[in-house]
Amino acid sequence: MVSCYFCGVVSPRIGSESSANMERRSRFNHVCEVGSYRLALQASCTSVNTVGLGIFFDGKIFNATELASQLDTDSQDASEILLFAYRKWGDKFLQHVEGEFAFVLWDCVTPRVLLGCGAAVNLPLFYTLRNGEFWFSRALRDLLASLDETPRINKNYVARWLAMTSSIGNDSTFFENVYRVVPGSVVIFEQGRITQDVYWQPENTAPLRLRDSREYADGLREVLEQAIRNRMPACSAVGSLLSGGLDSSSVTSLAARILHDDNRRLHAFTAVPAHPVDNPEGRFCDEGPAAALVAARWPNVEHVLVRHGKHSVFSLLDLFGSEQMEPIINPSSYDWFYESCLQARKRQLDTLFTGDSGNISISHGDHLALRSLASEGRFMTLAKLAWEMRSNGCRRWRGIGYEVFGSWMPLEMRRILPGRFGKFHSLFEYSMIRPEFAQRYGFDSMTLERNINFTHSRHLRALFLRRPDVDAVNDAFRRLTGVSKVDPAGDRRVVEYCLSVPVEYYCEKGVSRSLIRNAMTGILPEQVRTERRRGLQSADFAKHFEREREEALAELARMKKVDLVVEALDIEEMERMMQWTDTQVAAHGGVLRYWPKLMRGFSVGRFLRRHEDGTLFSRDHGLHAAIPFTG
Q1: Separation CA 203–CA 459 (nearest Å)
Q2: Fewer CB atoms inside 10 Å of the end CB: C or N, the chain?
Q3: 405 or 608, which is more confident?
Q4: CA nearest 209: which of 500, 411, 8, 473?
């Protein structure tokens, strides 16, 4: 669990301070001079200082022993090791560091202040430059509370969020001129200017050449197991979020095996529907049976079923929106995420393993594999793989042709060919964004297709694996429940290994996600390892939402009174969708499109409305304030 939160400001020492500034700084417990600037900090931990250098550090360094040897020090303290590394390697010191962390480092000699985050999934860090003052904080909420006035909403970011592109290589937030430190980067404040150095660039990972698929699978299992060990608490009990899919099942199984050797237990939490659901879209709706097979394989696993529908979805939108200062991107899943964390806390757990990054790392499938092989000029491998995909029935020739040759077609041509050659992703199929608002900020109906139109899957996956919004979400869970969600599938070395594996080994013999399937042979139950269907989490969400229909309609009425909500969202379409029958939902793409699209509209609309009326910044809800349903 995170032990240190910090916030601070770097301001010029020249001139007299206003009484308002002095009052704001009264809560800071650490003040020092950095050249012609004054650094004032508040933190829940003790700073570490050497001659001319100081640091506040939050998180964990995985290769601390290795670094200590390279730096010729006996210290195992992460803060001291980072200072020694900075002294030896300068601005490039984080290239040598593995871990999940965030820090503020001040160099009184240069002079400068550095903010940094580890690579891939990490701890969040935010900053802004206001009237010559450099403000920063581990929590966006705390940063906004420190400023004279709340910044205005960043309309461009609202458009990006609704278009589902906000997290792709972007350091902005929902507030104007307030930024986040992108994972794998360092932000430097020096001589009144801000610069950014992105030291981690996974898209440049060199290909790995091994003899066969078995060696690639063994390598994946090895790095994933090490990532789990790195995140394993020293002595406390451990939990995991276990679905019926490959990612969480693999993480849970490897964690259980490690814990079993230490005679320790693992609590696996699985979300199951409270109501029976018939799903016509080729997914299994109750992940409980598959998860139970995984749990039963390990004698030290306690399997805990978490029923959907414990909390009000609108209460959760308020609770997490106020904590992370960003709308919830997938509201239908937060009920069981939150309840699982509460159940874990009742069992005195402070760590929950997840496999959230698995789809674009350990269990990547065949997405863009053929196009990637074409771009590499490996046509013999492409032809063999295409034949295998067609032979086992997972792909049709027209879809194969569309993927191979589609990247050379103009987007406008591909837009008129989806019925015969593939699927074109229209912005308005998945987003409630108003067309005029989308066009004003540079988005149109081909936005998603442009975003995924990379010639190689490695580049697309690298962008998503650097998503900074995930860090803020995990931090909100940590602050609200006391439980840390950790994701070894997003570990830096795991990510780099997965990006180095040639794309054909992710779909060997035409079987999607073959790399993780091969890696988990003999570890996962065969029924789970070979399952080709995906699970549908929160499958009975529609049943639970009926209890909140009245609040949803009332919220639409409130949202219509806020200019920015009306400007950004197609409220009229949301009202129509609220009246759709099951037949209409099926005709418009089914529940997999209907609920995410509608609920993201409610999420961002309610967020903007609460910003307008000031309730977004209220702390009245307190800890664990999501409203439980008791009926």
Answers
A1: 5
A2: C
A3: 608
A4: 500
- Sheet of 238-241: strand order equals 301-307, 266-272, 238-241, 351-353, 484-486
- With a cut of 60, say whether residue 88 has pLDDT above it: yes
Q: Which structure tokens are listed for 10?
A: 């770097």
The angle that helices 397-406 and 379-391 make with each other, rounded to 10 degrees, is 150
Amino acid residing at 341: C
**189 Cβ neighbours under 8 A, 6+ residues apart:** 10, 112, 113, 114, 115, 129, 134
The DSSP symbol for 182 reads P
CB-CB neighbours of 209 under 10 Å: 8
SS3 label, residue 139: coil
pLDDT digits (tens, 9 = 90+) for 21-41: 555 556 677 888 998 999 999
Report the sign of the C-alpha dihedral through residues 16, 20, 21, 26, in that order.
positive
Is the CATH code 3.60.20.10 the one for domain 6-200?
yes
- Are 471 and 338 spatial neighbours (Cβ–Cβ below 8 Å)? no
Averaged pLDDT, 88-94: 92
pLDDT band, very low/low/confident/very high, at 621 (cuts 50, 70, 90): very low
Longest dimension (CA), the chain: 77
3-state secondary structure of 409: coil
Would you state the CATH architecture of domain 213-363+467-529? Answer: 3-Layer(aba) Sandwich (3.40)
**153 DSSP assignment:** B
CB 402 within 8 A of CB 544: no
* Residue 430, pLDDT score: 84
- Give the whole-angstrom CA distance, residue 356 versus residue 330: 13
Q: 364 or 457: whose pLDDT is higher?
A: 364
**Predicted confidence band at 539 (pLDDT cuts at 50, 70, 90)?**
confident
- pLDDT for 228: 97
Average pLDDT over residues 505-519: 94
Extract the tokens encoding 548: 């909140």
Measured in degrees and rounded to the nearest 5, phi and psi for residue 531 equal: -65, 125
Cα separation, 600 vs 592, in Å, equals: 13
Q: Which alpha helices (DSSP H) does 271-426 contain, by range? A: 288-296, 313-324, 331-346, 369-376, 379-391, 397-406, 411-415, 418-421
pLDDT at 400: 79
Burial class (CB in 10 A: 0-12, 13-18, 19+), 258: middle
Q: What is the pLDDT of residue 421?
A: 46
Predicted confidence at residue 17, as pLDDT, reads 53
pLDDT of residue 46: 77
Amino acid at 114: L
CA neighbor of 141 nearest in space, from 622, 619, 564: 619
Element (H, E) at 195: strand 193-198
Phi, psi (degrees; rounded to nearest 5) at 11: -135, 150
Q: Structure pTM?
A: 0.91
* Count of Cβ atoms closer than 10 Å to residue 440 Cβ: 14
According to the model, what pLDDT value does residue 556 have? 97
Please return the burial class of 362, using the count of CB atoms within 10 Å of its CB with bins 0-12, 13-18 and 19+.
Answer: buried
Residues 204, 316: contact at Cβ < 8 Å?
A: no
pLDDT above 70: residue 274: yes
Contacts of 451 (CB under 8 A, 6+ apart): 164, 165, 168
Q: Scanning the structure block, which residue is given the tokens 């079923």?
A: 305
